[in-house]
Amino acid sequence: MKTIVTGALMIMLVALNFDSIAQCREFKWPEDKSTAEEKVALYGDAMKQGQYQAAAKPFNWMLKNAPDWHVKLYIDGADIYDNLAEKEKDPARKQQLVDSMLMMYDMRIKNCGDEVNVLNRKAFYAYKYNVMNKDKSVELLALFDRVAEISGTKMSDGNLVAYMTAVQANHVLHKNLSDEQILERYDKIISIANAKIKEDEAAGKTKDVAKVKEYVGVIDDLLIGMVKVDCDFVKNNLEPKFRKTPTDIAMAKKIFGFMLQGKCTDDPLWLEAGELINKTEPDFGLAKNMGLKHMGNDNLDKAEALLKEALELATTPEDKADMLIYLGGIQAKKNSKSAARDYYRKAAEAGNKEGYEKIGDLYYSSFNDCKKGANMAEDRLVYIAAYNMYARAGAGQKMSQAKSQFPSKEEIFLFNWKVGDTMRVSCWIGETVTIDTRD
To answer: pTM of the prediction?
Structure first.
């Protein structure tokens, strides 16, 4: 758990971004203004020099005597106690300083308002110090519950991960959350994240979109560490929600990913989710895998449509050739051998020698389709055609198998043929081959 928490914290420290709007923007000096000005100068100079302990005394005078002086008072106070807490080695004293820092946020809300912004800040810094503190983790989770309730999409990006980590901390330290309670908070966090993504996409903030999507991945990982995310989980918890909102692309992605991980891709739900994703965000790998799944289920028309789409989306010659092989396989399953050969030839031309082997298989399996029954030597020419294709593919074992089916010397003698003569294979094959014998 410590590794996950540390990683999540590092992500947020890089990208934490709070609104800066607040009240208390006008200075309200106490009656003893000259002393107050002196105290502000003293603690301000001490802070600039990194002497936070020296800053504490004049700051506390201001806090006691001029609590509504300016919002800057609470910003500075939080900064002072944060720096003191970071350096403090004694655990008890450190916690006192952390509590004092968090109190600055409460006082700021009381005196200056701006609850959404300030409570987000408080939650993050409470997380920073208290997430692994067993005595504070329940309180921390309640704080995040409140932040989510009042913030919506105004919840800071970093707090999305922090909130889920606080859930994890309670799960580990107290075992006080049922699967339903964990999932309830997970759904809340993901709902906020998805809404933020939509807002950022509409505003053209591509970097923010990528950042929140990265956080969603971390949140998913945290969930998997707490709740058994398997096929039953998907069917019991995610499918009912998907049925209510069948165009929810984010939910479809979770279903698709979790079912792939759980190895339950035979469930029609997996294909349904994948088709929605592919319709919204066409992707080569997705179209390919769904096409192959439909092909395995003998849904050949769907398989063909998806593999043709994958062919268009392929970016490398290797991927294009692979798709041509699969499309040839669909035509072969439909017994459209000529159409299958066309795909296989294109695959071979693209550099995939398997295309020649597949054509060889088509020829080899065409004996019964092409035989006339009058001339065994002529009927066996399909095997020579198959052999030639196997040779181009370098398929040695199949070459031997095909050669064993060549005409015999006796069979070609009966029709006055000689080894080395050329003959055209009839039927759909239409290849010209050189006569050879198996013996």
So the answer is: 0.62
